[in-house]
Amino acid sequence: MTVQGFFSARTNAAAQSYAMPRIAVIGRGFSGMMMAIALLKTVRFPFHLQLFDPNSSVSGGQALASGHSSEILNSRVRDLSVSAGDPDDFNQWLSGNAPFRSAVPAAIPGFLQIFVPKSIFSDYVYQRFSEAFSSRRDVAVQVSSETVFGLRRVRGGRFVVESDGAVNAPFDMVVLATGYGITDQETQASDLVTVPTTVRARRLVSRPHTILLGSGLRVVDRLLQMRENGYTGQITIVSRRGFLPQSHTRNNADPVFPADEMPGNLSEIIRFIRKACGEAEANGQSWQSVMNGLRKHARSLWRSLPAGQKQQFNRHLRALYDSHRNRLPEALHVRLKQELAEGNTLLRRGHFMRRTPTGLVLRPAGRQETEQLYADDVIDCRCQAPDLNAPLLRSLIDTGLAVPDELGLGLAVEAAGALEVNGRTTEGLFAIGPLGLGSLPDIDLVPEIVTQAYAAAESVAERFHPQCKAV
Ligand SMILES: Cc1cc2nc3c(=O)[nH]c(=O)nc-3n(C[C@H](O)[C@H](O)[C@H](O)COP(=O)(O)OP(=O)(O)OC[C@H]3O[C@@H](n4cnc5c(N)ncnc54)[C@H](O)[C@@H]3O)c2cc1C
């Protein structure tokens, strides 16, 4: 959905007032839209909100933009509410949505435990944003289809946003919600529905062959989409560690976690979690419940680990952890297992060395020598960390407004997203969502982003109007 038309009238009328605090949100993916909702619902005084993103649609960024009806989100409805303190909000929205209601079996009484297509979640987020905006006649919202390539602090602690568009007046507050960086969403969406039939080089294998690089949710999405669209060729998944997403359970997997004190060292923590999973299974619960419980402790646990152990976790355990936290709905997991069992899809563990005109070069796990894999197409489905050399992030780091986190995965932030430099927060500057992944575990997931966005909005409210906080 494009947004320029929707906003222009209100923008023109309200943007006259330069006395209002000016807030810039850079990125209109899920984190950016969530931040806008949180600001509109939390900050009571009038303000000017400008949303920057070269992608002209409000479609939910990387996770949701490509969503078409067959693509299912991997979180249950109960974990996807965008309303602070009301986990039932998405369920309520679905219940009031007549086309959705008529499409699901009447036997399902409520929707809290089910999985829904990405496109529906995207509609829900957009509607909650529109409602929050409509209820605030005192707020001016401006949508700019511009790429931001720098931020400069000027007198009075305000920020000049440098973009490839018009020159803007300085902002009092800037929220970075640039997630995984700029992607061409048009291409991304159409890639998913186009079966790669073009033979890019002389075929060196007897039948069509596509290589998918990566092992996370994107690989599974792409694999199942290709099959749904009729691709019958061979597919090889090339993954460094080979951990594909695990399955959700049929039951609710409500969080459980032992009350005992957690050990302070990584290998003992792993033993502790393994034991907890074993005990849960023995008691008729599931390891998934323990993983859900662990998420509630992850932040304090992460904070307590020394830098060396965090690095060890990142190098050796992150892929395994991700495969257990980013789980597939059971039905999709069954389809993935069938694919692998039938032999038409292979999983190869190894280190991707380089692309070649006829495929790629792989160093298989545990071997020294490399191997050429021939393929008609190689599709990169790896989830890359934010690029700290992207011009915007580079400008922040070079001018001392931000520093990389200790793992170099993103920027150092505190829980509410305020940027941290040498233990002190940078006044007026926030990073919401995956940019904070090296500082805050699971901050790339919806519930954590929602909590962080509301916490950041509270800080904004307090900064500009200490005596008048949340609505
Ligand atoms: C396939 C997939 C499935 C997922 N499923 C789930 C799920 O089921 N449950 C769950 O909790 N989480 C899920 N996630 C994770 C989660 O939803 C994402 O981490 C989250 O949506 C991140 O959103 P974002 O807005 O921070 O980043 P992005 O989606 O990367 O959006 C960033 C936006 O910023 C813009 N931008 C970047 N740089 C600039 C710049 N310099 N100037 C202007 N604009 C810029 C980009 O154009 C983009 O639109 C999934 C993620 C993926 C990829």
TrEMBL record:
InterPro entries: FAD/NAD-bd_sf, HpyO/CreE_NAD-binding, L-asp_N-monooxygenase_NS-form. Pfam families: NAD_binding_9 (PF13454). Residues 24-180 form the FAD-dependent urate hydroxylase HpyO/Asp monooxygenase CreE-like FAD/NAD(P)-binding domain. This is FAD-dependent urate hydroxylase HpyO/Asp monooxygenase CreE-like FAD/NAD(P)-binding domain-containing protein. It comes from Rhizobium lusitanum.
